[in-house]
Each structure stands twice: as structure tokens, then as C-alpha cells.
Design a protein that fits this description.
Its EC number is 5.6.2.4. By secondary structure, the protein is α/β, with parallel strands linked by helices. The protein contains 24 helices and 33 strands. The structure holds adenosine-5'-diphosphate (ADP) and zinc ion (2 copies). Adenosine-5'-diphosphate binds next to helix 10.
């Protein structure tokens, strides 16, 4: 018997399964989808069994056996194995990357470096002897002293020691000690009788056990509750009154939280219509995709909840994806409140062990709903009835590392496998999705009103150029300052939002609002700090940083990027009485801090919540009546064709935080470009007009959804090598693709060096290019067999979220 195994070796020229023979003892239990430990070269690596067969082309003297079978129950289902094949084709990744992305990190291999003595007769220096302490192998830690490491290096050279890699296997399952009390009361009484009166403590414990015959209790609880000791209990166990057993338990991150039960709302007409279309398709076992376009607070979540309720009736499962940043307790609680312990939650705030436990509950069918971030789309359910992507436009659904998949595509693939509907929900759908809905590829469902008819907040757009002319150089316009003061007087709460995203800075004139743009493209130039130059990432145009505005000659040139800390200082200066909570990457590093800040704000411990895009979503506090956007321009001038779309989405999302309940909300947006259509349409909450305008622009400049773009990135430690191979790639594409495909670049990437590697990129823009998959496969083959050896790394992204 032979197994085809995909091995865990990164950046290897050959991406195909290797055959291993299956030792006798594994033959009856091994299955496809199990993990194994196999020899590869001169080390042991993790592998996944993808097929079993009775023959192999590998000659007898080259055949190697599987070393260890790590799972009796396969960790990957047949569906997942099929999905990896598709992911590999669809994203051009290594198969091992596709396999690993489906599993919680607890099940991915971790390796350790093992140092072993091979020449046992050799004299070892003292320091090395101390390391081994009489054993003949030890784990080598990276933090050993430099001297010791160089001694070791020499011994390896002299073939006295060898260094090996081994799979670190630590069981991630948590077990606790349980006391299983004898079930037979008479037997317990008998034991009680026989214990001498001197052992009073033991007698007391056994007496208590008589009242708890047959029960199973955590050992630690027994000791605590009876105020007894381990030694006493040990004596009781020896007498046969109880046995000690290890039991697997789940680590539950939500254990200490009380969750209320929520009742379902009776739906509005629009909600009802949307739900019945979804349920109709569900009943037909169709793989249909719905785009649920509903304004903020229109009750999309209630539609999700009731659709899930329908699928639960049939014992089917549901996957709900939400962007990582909106995985606030508020959002997850809404699902827990409705479906209780049937809900598992998966996000980056959980520990490895907690994630593994949630994953096992899903795999074992002990939960029926998972609410999670991007990778939860791979939840190992086997009978899915519904898949939901909330805020479907969010960039976080696209993974930027291999495998470079979009959760939306995986959702649709799985819906076809399970014959179930997908719901894509958003107040501001992505242009791609809305265009597909208009074409009829997705079914469009609309929620145009809020259930209790609350009006959307009034948005005022403040021209910061005017403020400057009137001598106000602070970051608060007079209007925003007044609005803040009013809230402080009335004791209402507010959110101040600093729209800061990405790394790119742009160059802006403080006097006339001009942003330096590329002469050839409708895109702003990016400021490159290393070289003190500005560049266009689309056509490669570049020039020196201007010292004065090209439009009005003013010398008030500014490179944008204001931090939240600076804003916090300014608030303290202008509004000394205001109590501020700041929420950004710096204040939310610790586990649970995110939740803690929101709880404080919810409890009224602060007047102002100040933050980055982290606070744009999911917040639902009744007392927020003001949202202030300090600078709407930051996303607008990113060198990205999606800049206007992202700005519109963010402004709409933050506006949605104000006045969600009885009190009316107000939004103040500060900007240097008040007339920009993204800002104007956001002011009027007008998605459709924004969509139409943006589609015209995309058409004119041939950007998605009118074309497709592919981003190819080349990196190397040497800048000349990087440039050389980037040109090689671009030239090769120019020679092999038809001339309807436009190849842009290569140019240096906007962050031109990361971790000491230089980065170049080129773009392919195309409408129809049947040759593309083949051509890219060939390029990958050249790369893996030749360039890889020279230290070049190449990545191909068929659907980059930004460029
Ligand atoms: P969205 O997800 O579209 O932003 P939510 O689902 O958060 O909107 O709904 C906004 C608010 O309206 C929530 O407090 C929710 O409980 C409430 N709600 C939803 N549907 C109804 C309904 N049919 N009747 C009354 N209230 C509703
Ligand atoms: Zn100017
Ligand atoms: Zn350009």
C-alpha cells in the first residue's frame, strides 16, 4: 500500500505529492486527509495524505515508509481536499499552503532544531557537555550564546555533532483530572465503615461521597469545596471510593460571560421580502448568491439570524463571516444571544488552544453556527445550509499571503459543493459585487429603511482650507469644536475618527488643497521617504518632491499622516474636561483590551472614543450622537484605484455609528477636498449615485470591474538582482501574452524594502486573456526551477486588494 503525500517544505521547485509506502500497522487505519510524519531528504517533515493506492512508480530501493501516522480521524474532509486542488489552481499557490490554511495553527507543523552527538568517542568541550547534560540529543534554542554556537558549528564541521530538524509535537488538547465517585451507595457505606476513626478527614470525604454517588467532579473543585488536601483524597482513592480520570475539556473564551437571550423581531416588509427570497432558494437546494444591500442599521443582521434559524431546523450548519475589526463582543453576542451554545467563534483574539477547541467543536458537529473572520470560511462543517459574509466589501476578506484567496470566492465554491445560498451583506457593496448583481449573476435584495424609521444622521462637510484662511490652524474646525462642546455640556457621547490607513503618504498643499498627481494617470503620487521622491505606481512616472505647490506656489506643503496620539494631546488642550478613550493598534495590543475599552465606553466612563478604522464598524451605543471625521482625505489620495471607493465606504460606515437609537445623530466630516464625489455622495448617503459615478471612472481608466488586474512582485536582498528579474518577468509576459493585455512596469513597490529585501512589481491589466493561466504557470515553472535558486522570491496575486 502506498500513500501520496504533500510535504511541508516551503519554496520547493516541485509541487506535487510524493509516494511513501504504508507500514503494515497503519494500513487498516490510514485515510486521505490524515497528517503523517515522513522522511524528506535528511529530515523529518509533516505531510498530508491526499490519496492511497496499491502501486507506485518509485523503484523499490528508493521507496521510503511513512514514519508516523499523526491522525486516526483525518483532519481534512474530502471536500477540503477537493478545495485545496481548486485553491491551488485559482490562486497559483503551493498545494501545502492550501492544505495548511484550512487548519487551525495548533495542527500545523512546528519544527525544532535537534542537536545530536554522532561521534560518541570524541572529547566535548565543557560548555557543550553542559548543554547535553549526559543525553545524546538536545533541542537547540536560538538564544544560546554566540561563543557556544560557534563551538557547535565547529563540532558539526568535524562530524562530531549533527543538526536535525524534527517536528515538534505537542498535544494541544487540554485535559483536567476528574474524580469519578463510585456509583454503588452500599459499597461506599461499606468503605466508610472500614476506615478507622483516626483517619477522620478521609472518613468525612467518603461520607460526602455517599451523597454524591456516581457523580463526576473536577478534582480541583472537590479539594476546594471540601477544604481537604491532595493527600487525603489520595487515601480515599486507594480505598476504592472513587477513581481519578483524565477528561478532555474545551477552553471557552466566553465562559465567564453571561449572555442574555434575544427574541426575534417581527420583520419589516423589506426584511420579510429579502428573507423569503433567501429561504425560497434554500428550499430549492440552489447555490445562489444574494447581495443584501441595506443601509446601516436597516436590520441586515436580523435577516441573517432568521435565515440561519431556518437552516438550523434542518440540522444544517451556517458560517457567518465578519471583518476581524468588527468581531466586537457586541456583534458575536448577537449570535450567541439567539443560538446559545450552538455558536462557535473564531478570530485572532483567541489563543491557539482556544481556536483549536472551537475548531474541534465544529469538526465534531457539536456546534452548528460559526461566527468568525476570514479563515473561518474553511470551518470543517459537513452539511452547510447557509454562508454569510457581512460587510462583504471589506478588504480583510482577501488574504495577502499565500494562498492569496478571497473569502467570497471560497464561500461561493463551498455553496456550490453544498447546494446552499450565500448572502453577501453591506451598506456599501464592493463595485465588483454590485456590478454582478446588476448583471443578474447575484440576486439583489434591498433594505432602504431602518426598522424603527430612525433617520440617517445629518452630515456636514467642512472645508478645512476655509478654516486655514480664517486663521484656524488646529485640527478641529470651529464647527466640530462647537459640536464637541455641545455634547460635553449635554453629557452625550461621541466618536472621533482618524481616517488613517496604509503606509503611503501623499503630498498636499495646505493652502489650496491640491494633491500632487501623476501627469499620466488619475492617481496621486506616492511619497517615497527613502529616496525623497514622489512616484506613480501605475505608470512608473517619478519626480523630486516639490518644495512649493504646483498649483498656487504656496510653500505650505504637507506630507500627510497624523497620529491618534497627537489628536489625543490636542483634545486635552482644547477640551480639558473631556474624558477620552483611545482605540488603535497601540492601545489594543493586549488580549481583551479591545473589549475592555468598549465596555468602559458603553458604561459611560468616557465622553469621547477616539480611534482609527477599528472603530468604524459594529459599534451600537445609544448615547453616541456625534461622529467627527478629522480628515476624510487620508484614504482618498492613496495610490490605489479603489481609493474613492474605500473613502466612500469608510465615511458611510462611521456615519452609521451616530444616532442609531432614539437620539438624533450628527456627523461632521473635515476635508481639504469637499467637492470630491466620494465625500459628497457619502454626505447624502447615496450609494447608487456613487456607484454610477465611480463605474464611469473605472471604465474610462480601464480598471476593475471592467478589467482584471494581476500583481506580480519580485523580491531579493540585492536591489540590482530585484530589478533585473522584475524586468525578466515583465519581458517574458510581454512576449507571451497577446497585445490586448497591458503590462505595466516593473517599478519599485511603494515600500521599496521590507525586512532587507527589495521589492519590485509589475501589473497585468486585461479584459479577456485565455492564455493567461498557462502563461503564468510557465512563468512559475521558470521561477521555481531557476530563479528560486538565486534567492529571488516571486508572488503572483490574481486579485490584489490594493496595488
Ligand atoms: P445592520 O446589520 O443592517 O446594520 P442591525 O441588524 O444592527 O442593522 O439592526 C439595527 C437595529 O435595529 C438593531 O438594534 C436591531 O435589533 C433592530 N432591528 C432589526 N430588525 C428589526 C425589526 N424588524 N424591528 C425592530 N427592530 C429591529
Ligand atoms: Zn496650493
Ligand atoms: Zn502614472
Amino acid at each position: 500500500m502506498f500513500a501520496e503525500v504533500i510535504v511541508d517544505v516551503a519554496a520547493y521547485p516541485i509541487d506535487r505529492p510524493f509516494d511513501y509506502s504504508v507500514p503494515e500497522m497503519f494500513q487498516t487505519i490510514i485515510e486521505s486527509g490524515s497528517r503523517v510524519k515522513v522522511p524528506f531528504g535528511n529530515r523529518q517533515v509533516l505531510g498530508f495524505v491526499t490519496a492511497l493506492k496499491s502501486d507506485t512508480d518509485v523503484p523499490l530501493d528508493k521507496q521510503k515508509p511513512i514514519g508516523e501516522l499523526l491522525d486516526i480521524e483525518p483532519v481534512l474532509t474530502e471536500e477540503m481536499l477537493a478545495m485545496t486542488k481548486w485553491l491551488k489552481r485559482h490562486t497559483l499557490c503551493y498545494e501545502i499552503d492550501a492544505l495548511q490554511v484550512m487548519l487551525p495553527s495548533a495542527l500545523r507543523a512546528k519544527y525544532e532544531k535537534i542537536l545530536r552527538i554522532v561521534d560518541s568517542n570524541a572529547e566535548l568541550p565543557q560548555s557543550v557537555q553542559a548543554l547535553f547534560q549526559g543525553k545524546d540529543s538536545v533541542e537547540l534554542k536560538a538564544d544560546e550564546s554566540k561563543e557556544l554556537l560557534s563551538t557547535i558549528k565547529k563540532l558539526i564541521k568535524d562530524q562530531i555533532l549533527v543538526l536535525e530538524t524534527a517536528i515538534k509535537q505537542k498535544t494541544a488538547v487540554k485535559k483536567v483530572r476528574m474524580v469519578q465517585i463510585e456509583a454503588d451507595v452500599n459499597r461506599l457505606k461499606e468503605i466508610h465503615e472500614n476506615v478507622s476513626n483516626q483517619a477522620k478527614k478521609q472518613k468525612d470525604v467518603i461520607k460526602w461521597m455517599i451523597d454524591h454517588a456516581g457523580e463526576r467532579i473536577i478534582l480541583a473543585d472537590v479539594i476546594k469545596n471540601l477544604q481537604t488536601s491532595n493527600a487525603v483524597l489520595q487515601g480515599v482513592l486507594e480505598k476504592g471510593a472513587a477513581t481519578l480520570e483524565l477528561e478532555e475539556v474545551y477552553r471557552d473564551p466566553y465562559a465567564d460571560r453571561t449572555i442574555d437571550v434575544s427574541k426575534k423581531h417581527s420583520l419589516t416588509d423589506e426584511q420579510h421580502l429579502a428573507l423569503s427570497e433567501i429561504i425560497h432558494s434554500y428550499d430549492q437546494h440552489e447555490a445562489a448568491t444574494f447581495l443584501l444591500h441595506g443601509i446601516t442599521g436597516s436590520g441586515k443582521t436580523e435577516v441573517y439570524l432568521q435565515a440561519i434559524e431556518r437552516s438550523l431546523k434542518d440540522q444544517k450548519e451556517a458560517i457567518v463571516l465578519v471583518p476581524e475589526i468588527s468581531l466586537t463582543p457586541q456583534m458575536t453576542n448577537r449570535f450567541k444571544e439567539r443560538f446559545g451554545s450552538l455558536v462557535a467563534v473564531l478570530h485572532s483574539g483567541l489563543s491557539t488552544g482556544e481556536k483549536y477547541d472551537e475548531w474541534r467543536k465544529i469538526k465534531r458537529g457539536e456546534v452548528k453556527v460559526v461566527v468568525g473572520a476570514r479563515s473561518a470560511i474553511f470551518a470543517p462543517f459537513q452539511n452547510i445550509g447557509l454562508i454569510i459574509l457581512d460587510e462583504e466589501h471589506e478588504g480583510t476578506y482577501k488574504q495577502d499571503d499565500s494562498p492569496r484567496y478571497h473569502a467570497r470566492d471560497v464561500a461561493i465554491w463551498r455553496s456550490e459543493y453544498h447546494h446552499c445560498p450565500v448572502i453577501l451583506g453591506s451598506a456599501t457593496p464592493s463595485l465588483e459585487s454590485y456590478a454582478r448583481a446588476k448583471k443578474g449573476n447575484y440576486s439583489l435584495l434591498t433594505l432602504s429603511k431602518r426598522p424603527r424609521e430612525q433617520a440617517l444622521p445629518e452630515v456636514s462637510v467642512i472645508d478645512m482650507r476655509e478654516q486655514l484662511k480664517n486663521g484656524n490652524r488646529s485640527m478641529f474646525s470651529l464647527e466640530l469644536a462647537d459640536a464637541i462642546r455641545l455634547r460635553l455640556e449635554k453629557g452625550e457621547q461621541m466618536v472621533l475618527f482618524l481616517n488613517r490607513r496604509g503606509h503611503s503618504s501623499f503630498v498636499l498643499c495646505r493652502d489650496c488643497g491640491t494633491v500632487v498627481e501623476c501627469p499620466n494617470c488619475d492617481i496621486s503620487m506616492t511619497y517615497h521617504r527613502h529616496q525623497e521622491r514622489i512616484k506613480c505606481h501605475y505608470c512608473g512616472e517619478e519626480s523630486q518632491v516639490p518644495n512649493s505647490c504646483p498649483q498656487c506656489s504656496s510653500e505650505h506643503i504637507r506630507f500627510f499622516g497624523t497620529g491618534t496620539q497627537k489628536v489625543e494631546e490636542e483634545i486635552a488642550r482644547f477640551f480639558p474636561t473631556a474624558r477620552v478613550l483611545r482605540m488603535d493598534v497601540d492601545t489594543t495590543r493586549k488580549k481583551g483590551s479591545h473589549e475592555h475599552i468598549l465596555k468602559q465606553f458603553g458604561d459611560g466612563k468616557a465622553d469621547i472614543l477616539l480611534g482609527t478604522q477599528m472603530i468604524a464598524k459594529g459599534l451600537d451605543f445609544p448615547n453616541i450622537t456625534l461622529v467627527g471625521v478629522l480628515s476624510a482625505d487620508t484614504t482618498l489620495h492613496l495610490a490605489d484605484f479603489r481609493a474613492a471607493e474605500k473613502t466612500f465606504q469608510l465615511l458611510t460606515q462611521v456615519s452609521g455609528r451616530a444616532g442609531r437609537h432614539d437620539k438624533k445623530g450628527e456627523v461632521v466630516v473635515q476635508t481639504y477636498t469637499p467637492d470630491h464625489y466620494a465625500i459628497q455622495f457619502a454626505k447624502y448617503h447615496d450609494f447608487i449615485s456613487f456607484y454610477n459615478q465611480e463605474m464611469m471612472n473605472r471604465k474610462q481608466f480601464a480598471y476593475p470591474p471592467f478589467t482584471f488586474v494581476v500583481l506580480i512582485q519580485i523580491t531579493h536582498e540585492d536591489v540590482l538582482m530585484t530589478a533585473e528579474y522584475a524586468h525578466k518577468a515583465a519581458n517574458w509576459l510581454r512576449e507571451n501574452l497577446s497585445n490586448t493585455a497591458e503590462i505595466i512596469g516593473p517599478t519599485a513597490s511603494s515600500i521599496s524594502r521590507v525586512q532587507n529585501r527589495y521589492r519590485y512589481q509589475c501589473l497585468i491589466k486585461y479584459k479577456k486573456e485565455p492564455m493567461l493561466p498557462d502563461v503564468l504557470q510557465q512563468l512559475i515553472r521558470i521561477y521555481r526551477t531557476d530563479w528560486l535558486k538565486k534567492g529571488i522570491l516571486m508572488s503572483i496575486d490574481l486579485n490584489p486588494s490594493s496595488i
